[in-house]
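Ticket #4471: structure export looks truncated?
Reporter: QA, pipeline team
Priority: medium

Steps to reproduce: submit the single chain below to the structure queue and open the exported record.
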Amino acid sequence: MSSESPTVHLIGDSTMAEKGASERPQTGWGTPFAEYVDESVTVKNHACNGRSTRTFRELGHWEPAVEALAENHYVFVQFGHNDESSKPRATTEVEFTAHLERYVEETRERGAEPVLLTPITRRQFDGEGEPKETHPYSPLVRDVARQRDVPLIDADERSRALLREMGPEASKSLFLHLSPDEHANYPDGVTDDTHFSRAGARRMAELVLDGLEALDHELAAHIVRD
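Actual output as written to the record:
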């Protein structure tokens, strides 16, 4: 293993991505994640809004990331929201699996280490107040992790457990729920149960950290909690 300081590359969609001024207070979990690791770790957030496993590659986001990989680099791969959609960026289950496997293979070819994450749950509850399973592609991520011997952080399961603990009302604080005129970027208000508030992004980043610690992953030694 290289003696260089570790570098973490985040690849994924809007739930992970950095946000521009016009999108705030919407926050991707990758932003606070970088604040939870010590100064020896470099975090490069390549995630982009609206990307699936296929379009992240097709639109040129993966190429600069993979070319920068080396030993002591880690690639966190989290997709699903857009792959599952009915939009043109969607992928079939077979395609989704193949794309994940390709990210894993190309990461390892560069001497870096992949980490797979299931997508964070959407905020949906049934009539009994139980969080719904909102990601049909999460089992595919688990399968690839098992078959390819890749560390897995089950962010879907962990975030549903958090929603179950908080309940339908309190869990709104994790997501982008704004009343009209509450924020200049959303004058008509917004009810978004996919994307996170600042507080929600921090909480989701903490769930990822919890996953690293549960894995006894090398990066866990670099976690800095408040």
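Status: closed, not a bug. The export was complete when the record was re-opened. Leaving a note from the reviewer for reference: The chain has one domain: 7-222.
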